[in-house]
Amino acid sequence: MKNRIKCKTGTIVRITGKCFAYEYGKGQQPQTLRKNSQAAAFSFADVMIQASMAPEKLADFEQLQNCEYRTEKQKEERMKLSDILEGITYTCLQGDPDTEITALAYDSRKASEGCMFVCIRGAAVDGHRFAADVAAKGAAALLTEEPVKVPAGVCVICVQDTRYALAFASAAWFGHPARELKTIGITGTKGKTTTTYMIKSILERAGRKVGLIGTIEAIIGEKHIPALNTTPESYVIQQYFREMADAGLDTVVMEVSSQALMLHRTQGFVFDYGIFTNIEPDHIGPNEHRDFEHYLSCKALLLKQCRIGIVNRDDAHFERIIAGHTCSLETYGFSPDADLRAEEPHLVSRKGYLGVAYQLRGLLNFPVEIDLPGRFSIYNSLTAIAVCRHFGVDEASICQALKRAKVKGRIEMIKVSDDFTLMIDYAHNAMALESLLTTLKEYRPQRLVCLFGCGGNRSRLRRYEMGEVSGKLADLTVITSDNPRDEDPLAIIEDIKTGIGRTDGAYIEIPDRREAIRYVIEHGEPGDVIVLAGKGHEDYQEIKGKKYPMDEREIIADILGNHGLRRDHH
């Protein structure tokens, strides 16, 4: 393919795009541009020009008549299969590894003419079953773990683990975008979501352009994409990375779940920074991890996939977490052995506000105050500071950004009165609820009021446990509905009452969540701390297969409006 430009002698022009990079060097005469070793087919519609000299000194950029050109709608990305498989150990069972590929697909419904289809073994469906179907749709190649029967013209590539291979193939397909970004991955049982937003806030205040991938959403510039999983499939990660790099972002911070590490979703690149916040028994069951040992070993994989590992020194499992790590290691916590330490912690309480403050010691030394309550908020902020230290962020920027970092539905305080404090939190299991309520009791509220329900089509055991936790720790529990799904909300409430019945805690039941929220606001007493637990960032209620709009922030605003009061976010 011939693509030429005319350029003034002495000007360096680089033409880059989605899987390619062409260079026209200083002092050269106009000539055919040669793609670099990792390039894919040149697609003119994606071109961006950057020059080392002022734009006015750049000569006209001309498309010659012999240059193949397609518009955005017409263009079709193509890449040699052998280039996609670079770095992957494989066996070619049939066909030509140099065949051209137009797309990657791992969902048979999205298979298309000329694509490479990756046969994934899922919990319920095995992609190998669809080999003949995708071949009939025109797939040019299949990536498999075993031989499959398809026409001779279809290339079949066999690998040991197709999920692992998909991650590397996706990285190659999108032009290895992680190489254009500083990548920060955070794993741990608790704290991942809040910490990602803290890091994003600090780095943006320091002038970085930061993307985010997490439990709530993916953020690419002004674009917010609701999340389906804490960590998406490897193809989606690489797609997001490419969008971020093309949008001019220079950094990405993302949550990394144990499932993602177990299923190789974060392979294909190496994180610049890998953070391990903590670990407690969770996500253990037939569809997740077989036992705690497996859960821990999966999470610890992050420390073998990053250059610099940053770990909570206080975690009881610290030595097992870092065993076999391949990264440079740093630590944080309250421990005197930690590289970055929190000392002299104390609670901060004002009208309608709860926070925490401490003195930072070790690698950095300055006082910190956060507008979030509790010891775990100290850990979250320490994690963020430990990362941002590597970006040269100054003390003032760190402190100001920490004060402003908010996460929707994570200890989200909403100012409704100077008399009492109200917050929304995503705590939707017994462990999270116990941690939250225990933290809030340390502030010695007049009353600790906990409003919550439990989701339908989920373990009944969770309902008993949450009821028992709230009955034990809250002064008043308001039992209401969450996402009943296909179950009777009143039956779910009865299960919660069974758990509360194991305690002597006071409770009332108000099945309508809107009315329950109205009740706790109208009956708030001076010094109360009121928690709306379970929904967090969710802005819907799921009933009988349908999601109905329900945002607790809007409900609160309506209630305050009806009382002639002004709503104000703290």
Structure explained in plain terms:
The chain has 570 residues and is α/β, with parallel strands linked by helices. It is 26% helix and 25% strand. It has an eleven-stranded mixed β-sheet, with helices on both faces. It has a seven-stranded mixed β-sheet with strand order 26-25-24-27-23-22-30, sandwiched between helices. α11 (430-441) packs parallel to α12. The radius of gyration is 27 Å and the shape is globular. The N and C termini lie far apart (59 Å).
As a percent range, the share of helical residues equals 25-40%
Rg estimate, integer Å: 27 Å
Count of DSSP-assigned helices: 15
Strand content: 15-25%
Task: Name the poorly predicted regions.
Answer: 1-75, 566-570
Query: In one word, what is the shape?
Result: globular
State the distance separating the first and last CA atoms.
Answer: 59 Å
The averaged pLDDT comes out at: 85
Biggest sheet character: 11 strands, mixed
Give the structural class: alpha/beta
Strand numbers in spatial order across the main sheet: 14-13-12-15-11-16-17-18-19-20-21
Number of strands: 30
